[in-house]
Amino acid sequence: MIEAVRLRDLQGRVLELGVEDGRWTGHPTAPPLDATRLWAVPGLVDAHAHLAADRLDLRPGDPTEIAGRAFAALEGGVFLCVDKGWCDRSVLSLLRHPPTERPDLQAAGRMIAVPGGYYEGFAVEVDVDTLTEVVADEAGNAAGWVKLVGDWPRRGRGPVANFDEDALRMAVEVAHRAGARVAIHTMAPEVPSMAVRAGVDSIEHGLFLTDEDLSRLGARGGAWVPTIRRVEELVQVLGADSSGGRLLSEGLSRISDLLPQAVQTGVAVLAGSDLTFPSARIGEEVAALREYGLEPADALAAATTRAYRYLGVAAGFEPGLPADLVGFEVHPWEDPTAPPALVIRRGRILSG
Ligand SMILES: [Zn+2]
Predict the structure, then answer these.
(1) Are 302 and 330 in a shared domain?
(2) Ligand 1: distance of its center to the CA of 332 in Å?
(3) What is the mean pLDDT of residues 260-286?
(4) Residue ranges of the alpha helices (H) in the chain?
(5) CA 118 to mean position of chain CA atoms
(6) What is the pLDDT of residues 196-221, one digit of tens each?
(7) Alpha carbons 174 and 335: distance in angstroms, whole number
């Protein structure tokens, strides 16, 4: 446990804070740990994680493995994860562990699709009659999120929408009534527009969002988690010349225009790992957001300030807030991919 720290934030301000019961206090009463050689943030955020697996490994999650992945995320400075669902609710087992052993967690439970609308047997499959009941059940048994699979390729037909706009609107209503937000997986044209009009909170992948969607989503402070590295990986897996690969490449070519516009219109553009790399390496997605048109500070905010704000989690170097600190030798606006040199969680040094 540390009792006080002298730190330097990303703007170069030097601050001195005490630590009491895992929280910052304004008055250091002990000689501070000097961390001013580093650039400090209060934590990193992975807004599209799947802690039940390392790769796209379609089996039920194992609570011991999940706890291991969660601790690895923490050691990498990722202090908040939004788990975007699995075939079961195994990730919720993390909530039994104290925050010194895992990131803060928001999570969907089981993903919701329709027959033929996802990897076979992996999501809960609904029809028009069971959708609202299943959404209510998931919303009531998860940690703040419901995850819908919005579209999925069918053999010989390309991607097909799993739900119509009315069904999406109904799902959103039911989830919101239960206090949960809704995230939707979409990689196809038109479905993002339907989802935005229907009031879905967070668009996952969303390569085919339009200008109008962004204005609408931004006006109500909605989120977009493009998971660029995941999509690039999928293009590789499918083959750049396959119909799926061509569609996703077309989608990727659109987003350099969309990303800066999204940030400007108030969309919460967030960084997500989505099984392409472990949560601890979320800086890889920050680098991708830069490659695709965001300014360094805007890209980093996708895994720091903007993410905390959108997710409603208070983080910062202020008295009363959790004594969390992630320090980097190189300013993360210069290189967002470098691992942290110092990680402090609730006043305890985890590494460095
Ligand atoms: Zn995902």
Answers:
(1) no
(2) 25
(3) 98
(4) 63-75, 131-141, 165-177, 191-198, 211-219, 228-238, 243-264, 283-291, 296-301, 305-311
(5) 21
(6) 999 999 999 999 999 999 999 999 99
(7) 42
* Whole-number pLDDT of residue 352: 83
Q: Residues 330, 254: one domain?
A: no
336, pLDDT greater than 90? yes
> How many angstroms is it from 56 CA to the middle of ligand 1?
9
DSSP classification of residue 28:
-
Residue 310, token pair as written in the block: 């959108």
Q: Are residues 65 and 175 in the same domain?
A: yes
Query: How far is residue 208's CA from residue 301's CA, in Å, rounded to a whole number?
Result: 23
Two structure tokens written together for 180: 């949960």
Domain of 15 in residue numbering reads as 1-42+316-352
Spacing, Cα 151 to ligand 1 middle (Å) = 13
Residue among 21, 65, 75 at smallest CA distance from 44: 75
Q: Are 347 and 250 within one domain?
A: no
Domain count, the chain: 2
Alpha-carbon distance 275 to 55, whole Å? 5
Residues 266 and 335 in one domain: no
The helix/strand/coil state of 347 is coil
The CATH number given to whatever domain includes residue 351 is 2.30.40.10
Closest CA to 78 of 107, 47, 45: 45
In CATH, what number is assigned to the domain containing residue 70?
A: 3.20.20.140
The answer on 177 and 189 residing in a single domain is yes
Q: pTM score, two decimals?
A: 0.98
Q: Are residues 215 and 123 in the same domain?
A: yes
Neighbours of ion ligand 1 (CB under 5 A): 84, 274
Q: Give the 3-state secondary structure of residue 131.
A: helix
C-alpha atoms less than 13 angstroms from C-alpha of 3 in its C-beta half-sphere: 5
Distance 89 CA to ligand 1 centre (A): 15
Residue type at 118 in one-letter notation: Y
Q: Let me know whether 14 and 100 are in one domain.
A: no
Centre of ligand 1 to C-alpha 304, Å, is 20
Q: What is the mean pLDDT of residues 62-91?
A: 98
